[in-house]
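Below is our example:
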Amino acid sequence: MSKFMDKRHSLLIFCLCYISLNAQLLPDLADVEYARVQGISLKLDIYFPKGVTPPFPVVIFIHGGGWQGGDKASPWGDFLVPEGFALVSINYRLSGQAKWPAHLLDCKGAVRWVRANSSTYNFDPTRVGVFGSSAGGHLVAMLGVTTGIDSLEGNTGGNLQYSSTPQAVCDWVGPSNFLTICDYPSSINHCTSTSPEGNLLGCAIPTCPNRARDASPLTYISGDEPPFLIMHGTEDMAVPYYQSVELDSVLRVVGNDVTFKPVVGADHPATSLPYWTSDSVNQTVIQFFNRTLGKPVSARLFQTEKNYSFNLGQNSPNPFFQETLIPFMGWQESAAPVLKIFNAEGKLVNKIMSPDRINFYWDGRNNQDHQAPAGIYLYQIDFEGRLFMKKMIKSK
């Protein structure tokens, strides 16, 4: 095979980075529109876990394809669904439709959509992870490192009162530093205007270094990123292995929670399926999300002779000011429930034990709660490991 054909073959692999081996898993909800941008309908598929107590931890899967191909169908993360995670697989604008940073803005809009629609789909908005491969790995890494960067937030899909920052990031074989990607051996010339990166940026990397820097995850690492799992094949000839070495090194040196798992002997996923579909690789991802998002609670744990009666509500008025009563009716001889209150960004703002095991009071007159600004809050009650979630609004 000629060098020209080798490069074309490698580029095809880079773009078509996943071939599903599990065609039986179909989405419970398909083609749900999460945004419409410049006449383009952006859609997602939802896979619900079975036998798990809601609200569900969520993993958003972002497909690869060199930012110029690929699709939300047959997400690589389908093995997470039987483990109790809801999976949301998204499409985003491709480089033939828009240039950088449109792809990232769409992904941020999808994360906000998941949180905004958590009560509709039984998602837990405080436990949202992201998982991507190749170009998708680059995009999930960018989601993890660009919190607070207004120029990279955008308004895709609205829901701007919700955070676009995930609680955990799983990056498979993603480019991390466009300024060095041409320095490593590769079957693709990444520095031409027709390369995947050139199509993404709208220019060849050497001719637009500032734009290339702005699209690189390494540029934004500050030390307050969510936990990262990075996996990369040591023989990857499409996205060089040392792209992930760089990402791991920079995340680690500033004190982040990062786990780097080289997949020894593996090339890019499409040419190394036995490596990337192995039980050990899948278990690494499952264990990472169990640790960072919390292991899903099996509904079977609550099959008991007791007939629990739960009533989760909030008193009027809603929106509320000062003191609000949150009644929770359960068996008083059971363990005391715990109330946790999260803001729209998924950050814990208060934790309250119920002295009478029934009612909670969030008192806006004390210093801690009074300082909480007006806005959307989510309250979660943990009762013997069973989670209940509801949205509430705090007025001025």
